[in-house]
Task: structure prediction
Amino acid sequence: MIKLFRNIRQNLLAQGKTTRYFKYAIGEIILVVIGILIALQINNWNEERKEKIVEKNFFENVRIDLEKDEEKLKYYHKFYTKRIEYLDTLLTYVRNPNITMGIEKFGMYVEPLFYASDPTNNNTTFESAKTSGTFNNFKEKELLKELSQYYADFTLIDKAFSSVVRFIENQFEPLMYTLPENYMTAQTGILVVNEGDVQDFYKKIASIKDYRNIKADYEGLLRTPIMENYLIGDMGRSFGALGIITVRQDLLEQLKVKIEQYD
Result:
């Protein structure tokens, strides 16, 4: 093609058609410019298409992370809902001296209180894209902003859960260790809400015979003000954690809807 244009220019010059030569040369320049512009536009389209694919893959992976979060939040919600139920039951017995639990029921209701839940933040996709600077070319800036806030708010869950853990370690465990733990049977852990299977642990403890004939004064422990104070303090922290979990569940659902709309 270039050789053809050169031959045409040479023929025009040889024929002394200078004016036509200049017109042709200008037309040739215009054609080249148009060709360059078309090439640039095609390149831009290709780049935008690649960026769109990267952005779509990002939101798809974020959606998968959010689904993992959703399952964890369901577990956390169940954990603290049940914890509040157990605390409520124990507080009812503490405040009513006319009723007794029985040692087995006492064990079943206090044992779940030894357990806590560890918060998990499934933010690998988001943090990886953020670190690599991939966000710079994304179009959905508002959705990115909402995702950023969602992941930043994880600290609220972390703090709420940590507060419960510290309360268990500093208040509940020292209180319960005033009793011998020979109240534990194979059924003691039946109300425990935990991600792992803990029943083998209770079966093992129950299989070790206790020949000391020591009785645990659980009734005396239930009537102490310190037990009432603990139950109320734990309940308050558990309600706080449950509230934060519920808010996060609502935000997650909103994000999932927006990501589906983006697709």
